[in-house]
Amino acid sequence: MFKKMTIAAVLTATLLSSTAAFAADKLNFGIIATESTINLKKSWTPYLDAMEKSPCPALL
């Protein structure tokens, strides 16, 4: 029980402290190729399309 509470506290502190670090006007995002480009494009196109519609401009 103590271990779960400690993990939850650490995760909460991490999320709260990293919020300010990601409060930027622009977000740089990259994909590291670990398989063929065609497969990556099929997998990532829906996500990248959704990111383009977000209020934070993405630099791809």
Count of alpha and pi helical runs: 2
Q: How many beta-strand segments?
A: 2
- What is the overall shape? elongated
| Low-confidence blocks of residues | none
Major beta sheet summary: 2 strands, parallel
Radius of gyration: 17 Å
Helix and strand string, N-terminal first? HEHE
Q: What do the pLDDT scores average to?
A: 75
The strands making up the biggest β-sheet line up spatially as 1-2
- What helical percentage do the residues reach? 55-70%
What separation lies between the terminal Cα atoms?
43 Å
Oligomer: single chain
Strand content: 5-15%
Structural class: mainly alpha
What attributes characterize this protein structure?
single chain, 60 residues, mainly alpha, two-stranded parallel ribbon, 7% strand, elongated
Quick overview:
The protein is mainly α and 60 residues long. The protein is 55% helix and 7% strand. The longest helix is centred in the first third of the chain and has 17 residues.
Descriptive report:
The protein has 60 residues and is mainly alpha-helical. The chain has a domain at 24-60. 55% of the residues lie in helices and 7% in strands. The protein is built from two helices and two strands, in the order αβαβ. It has helices at 2-18, 37-52; strands at 27-28, 58-59. The chain has a two-stranded parallel ribbon with strand order 1-2. β1, α2 and β2 (58-59) form a beta-alpha-beta unit. The longest helix is centred in the first third of the chain and has 17 residues, at 2-18. The protein is elongated, with a radius of gyration of 17 Å. The N and C termini lie far apart (43 Å). The mean pLDDT is 75.
